Amino acid sequence: MNEKLRIAFIGCGSFAKNFVSLFKLHPLVEKVYVCDLLEERAAAFSSNFNVEAIASFEEVLKRRDINCVAIFVQRHLHGPLVLKALSAGKHVYSAVPMASEVGECQAIVEKVKETGLTYMMGETCYYYPSSMFCRYQYEAGFFGKFVYGEAQYHHNITHFSAEFRADRRSAGVPPFFYPTHSTAMLLAAAHSYCTRVVAFGYEDTEGDGFFEKGVNQWDNLFSNSYSLMKLANGGTARINECRRIGYKAPSSYVSSFYGTKGAYQFSNAQHILTSLTEKGVDLQDVSDEVNPIEMTAHKGEPDFKQKVANHVWQWTGFSPVQKREYDRLPESFKQNPSINGHMASHQLLVDDFCTAVFSGKRPVVNAWQAARWTIPGLMAHQSALNDGQAMVVPDCGDAPK
Predict the structure, then answer these.
(1) pLDDT tens figures, 261-300
(2) How far, in Å, CA of 312 to CA of 249, rounded?
(3) 247 is in which domain, residue-wise?
């Protein structure tokens, strides 16, 4: 396109605030706008970030000077709004997930094919250190053939924002409607996708108005869901999505990655790599390479593991394994290290989108990849509703070259 981005944020909630400043800082962005159904929220963003507020989504779509939108509304509304934006000729950055219906995911892929516009799903966990480390080691041939891996998003409902929990119709969303933190980490590392899935759900009994029939709009009872996914490369993935679990941080992580020649294992702050030998295995502690640099600086302190378990160093700081991506960031980002988030992934994602729109090249987390990370979760929920029935996972194929 070779045209600078003029981007409108749709939704001014607690998550969007992490990204407005980043888009403003990017050298390929000319102007940022904000829009929300609640006029007072848009006005607050307008004042806090010194950006222009626009009255409605419909006005955003009509404005020819706006060439991009960033979707940060409730997660089950992503699909319909993305399709409207693409149909109006706008490039789209969307928070996760892609959509809450298989048909919407497929329609987004088709709309991107039809229009040639840029669509990117802002999946933070693609750039999580554990996923990047396993991905790089797998690409280098260290693991051999992929056999089995485990990834999970263990995020207790009490740790979600007060804004999210206040909307009882939406807070009880089925866990597998939000699968991409888990699926992206493992599937990206294994360079594969899911073909079949079986899953089971944990029916919640807390009675606090989240996972109950007649309360949330899906009549969803599952606060925790667990699956086994068959991958196209012959391996198997265990993926968990849990919202009622006695655990905090890191909420998203690869806990194991096994191949025919080597393996990776993680717990709390320790990352272990093993390789098969004639007599057993060769073991390496690679924690200092995978953990954030600031975390490693404190590892000798007596309360180190306690702080790790409570998310003290897992927001803005880069880890050594991320450095190969860090070098390509614009200086405006490097000079503002505190404007980041989710294991330092925000800066990388924003740069991916801005660069893709400006250059016309497809981003890494494109529509085809987003579909392959979203649809398995939607099918896993159907499996859980049917007591573990095996489900075929529809595939939208590879992104065109």
Answers:
(1) 999 999 999 999 999 999 999 999 999 999 999 999 999 9
(2) 9
(3) 126-319
In a domain, 45, yes or no: no
The rounded Cα 390 to chain-centroid distance in angstroms is 25
Residue 354 lies in a domain: no
Position 1 scores a pLDDT of: 65
Beta strands in 207-331 (DSSP E): 222-231, 236-242, 252-259, 262-267, 270-276, 281-285
Q: What is the mean pLDDT of residues 207-235?
A: 97
Question: Is there a domain that residue 250 lies in?
Answer: yes
* Terminal Cα-to-Cα distance of the chain (whole angstroms): 18
Residue 42 phi/psi, 5-degree rounding, is -65, -40
Amino acid at 51: V
158-161 contact pairs (CB < 8 A, 24+)? 159/248, 159/251, 161/14
Domain for residue 326, yes or no? no
Per-residue pLDDT reduced to its tens digit, 130-183: 999 999 999 999 999 999 999 999 999 999 999 999 999 999 999 999 999 999
Q: In DSSP terms, which residues pair with 283 in a beta bridge?
A: 274
CA-nearest of 297, 301, 302, 342 to 322 is: 342
The residues, ordered by sequence, that sit 6+ positions from 309 with a Cβ below 8 Å of its Cβ are 248, 249, 268
Q: What is the dihedral of CA 156, 159, 164, 168, to 10 degrees?
A: 50
**The CATH number of the domain where 298 resides is what?**
3.30.360.10
Provide the β-strand partners of residue 237: 149, 229
Using omega within 30 degrees of 0 as the cis cutoff, is the peptide bond preceding 363 cis? no
In terms of Cα–Cα distance, which of 30, 83, 39 is closest to 61? 83
- The count of structural domains within the chain is 1
Cα(22)–Cα(336) distance, integer angstroms: 9
